[in-house]
Amino acid sequence: MTNKANTQYWDQRNTRIFSSVGHWQGGEDVIIEGHSLMNDLMINASLMQVNILNATGKLVARNVADWVETNFMGLSYPDSRIWCNQISAYAGDTKTSVVAAASAAILGADSRAYGGGQTTQSSMTFLQVAYEDYTHGASFAQILQKARIINGKPMIIGFARPIDKDDERLQPYKDSQLRLGLEMGKYLKFAFELSDYLFEHFGLSINSGGYAAAFLLDQGFTPEEGYKIKAFAVIGGAIACYRDLEHSPANSFLPMKCQDIDYIGVAPRELPQ
After folding, report:
1. HSE on the CB side for 89, CA within 13 Å?
2. Which of 98, 139, 169, 243 has a CA 20 to 30 Å removed from the CA of 21?
């Protein structure tokens, strides 16, 4: 008796490339999730709408995509003190390519603590569960028992800021949402109520990440889709910081002297003659 594995699925794909998201119709059109790129999207859609379509398979309304674009602006400062921008600035200093710099910066921002993509997924996941608990009668105190506690404070992605607690992006986000005719949904309302509780009891409050996470949930996106949408959100600032250093003399970015190194290793020893 032989135990032959069923390889039918892979046999069908042998030497053939399949795609369920889209395809190029040589010389005529490109189809993305059933939408014509040449005859529809290029005429009627924004770049962010197409990016979200590629990331999630969903063609959202123009105003939703425009708000996400505003959010991207808030995640991509041209400031080389920001950790992911330090990578791209150093890449410019060492004369790598801009693509290598941007790619490394995006990877540097793919963090569980800071950044745009993975933190969005974490914040959306927490808000989903917390809102579900809240609608079933749980208090904020009970909801926060599920959060990780550090130094006596609940650590929730999207509800704290490491350097400056006052997040300058919140008001532009609100103004943009109002201008675009997007009502505040149930998750955003809940997020601000949670923020009020956190501020009263722990001095913590909602930040850009928490706002965006709640907004994306209100628009029907899943946490996994939020991660994909925000995957390259830091690219603008990263390229700016690369550009700032690419033509500078070598070692212009954070040059160090030997005296800057606090050596704590093995002490110098005499070498045998």
Report:
1. 18
2. 98
pTM of the model: 0.90
Q: Could you tell me the strand order of the sheet in which 35-36 lies?
A: 22-25, 29-32, 35-36
Question: Which of 109, 107, 122, 123 minimizes the C-alpha distance to 75?
Answer: 109
pLDDT tens digits along 226-262? 999 999 999 999 999 999 999 999 899 999 999 999 9
Dump the DSSP string for 102-160: HHHHHHHH--SSSSSSHHHHHHHHHHHHHHHHHHTT--HHHHHTTSEEETTEEE-TTS-
Chain mean position to CA 221: 14
pLDDT band at residue 125 using 50, 70 and 90 as cut-offs? very high
Question: Do the Cβ atoms of 207 and 171 come closer than 8 Å?
Answer: no
Task: List pLDDT tens digits, range 22-66.
Answer: 999 999 999 999 999 999 999 999 999 999 999 999 999 999 999
CA nearest to 227, candidates 120, 106, 129: 120
